[in-house]
Amino acid sequence: MTTIDGGLLAIPFKNSEVQYLDFIKEKKNRKFLRTLFGLEVDDYFSRNPKARQIPEECFADAVFKELKNEWVSMDIQSFKKFWMDWQNAESIRRRRWFGIAKDERVEKYSKGFSDYPTFEVGGKFHANNVNAIIGLNALKSFDEWIDRRKQIIERYDKELCSTVGIELLEKKKDRQSGNWLYTILVDKRSDFIIKMLQLGIETSIVHERNDVAPIFREYAGDCPNLRKVNNKRVCLPLHQNMTLEDANYIIKSIKGGW
């Protein structure tokens, strides 16, 4: 989604090249959308997608029309409405991603992430058709990426299992991790995160516990096990583009102390 005077990403052409659609005005003040190729996307093309030889299955991603003075995007996944009311627009932006507003986050270097004052319940629906196409193409390398992540984790496990101030999480033989994150428990976590940052290594707690968010505080409980690990947990770098040399540098830096 975007503001009424902005644009949005779409993939309306067979070559799957990402286009940026901008709102512009004609001399008669009629609003319409234009791609970088100069093709209008309005009611005429909505009714006649073959007029410019645009494949219908691609055209479905980039059909826009004006309804009751409000812009409406017709999408193969859903209808997305652009409110003229800025308060509604801001609320929608927050609710797209867990109720978190990007411009309300405050960087906390001792945590390696940004705190966020969540006042609304949101979902995880910030992805769009562009993300979907990237994801589909990424599946071609999925097995290779998973193997690389496993290699890095095995290196971490082997080298850090006896490091003073580090505790590795328990692993069960009857289950297998998806290896999205590599979390450890570390003494003096704030010092650890800052020291790693000074060495060019990004670490992060990634998520804060839910009951510190304003909207959930009234439901906070004792949670002794969570309290036991919450101030010690931190995630080390883990990515398919990392090399084993990168992992070795991280391990060496950790063993150097903090």
Architecture overview:
The protein has 258 residues and is an alpha+beta fold. The chain has 2 domains: 1-84, no CATH class; 141-255, Aspartate Aminotransferase, domain 1. The chain is built from 8 helices and 12 strands. It has helices at residues 43-47, 56-59, 86-96, 129-138, 142-160, 189-198, 224-230, 244-255; strands at 7-10, 19-25, 31-34, 40-41, 63-67, 70-74, 79-81, 106-108, 113-115, 166-168, 182-186, 233-236. It has a 4-stranded antiparallel beta sheet with strand order 1-2-3-4. Strands 5-6-7 form a 3-stranded antiparallel beta sheet. A hairpin with a 5-residue loop joins β2 (19-25) and β3. α5 (142-160) runs parallel beside α8 (244-255). The longest helix is centred in the middle third of the chain and has 19 residues, at 142-160. The two termini are 43 Å apart. The relative contact order is 0.10. Mean pLDDT is 73; it is low at 1-46 and 49-84.
What does this entry show, briefly?
This is DegT/DnrJ/EryC1/StrS aminotransferase family protein. The chain is of the alpha+beta class.
Structural topology:
Blueprint: E1 7-10, E2 19-25, E3 31-34, E4 40-41, H1 43-47, H2 56-59, E5 63-67, E6 70-74, E7 79-81, H3 86-96, E8 106-108, E9 113-115, H4 129-138, H5 142-160, E10 166-168, E11 182-186, H6 189-198, H7 224-230, E12 233-236, H8 244-255
Antiparallel strand pairs: 1-2, 2-3, 3-4, 5-6, 6-7, 8-9, 10-11, 11-12
Helix pairs in contact: 5-8
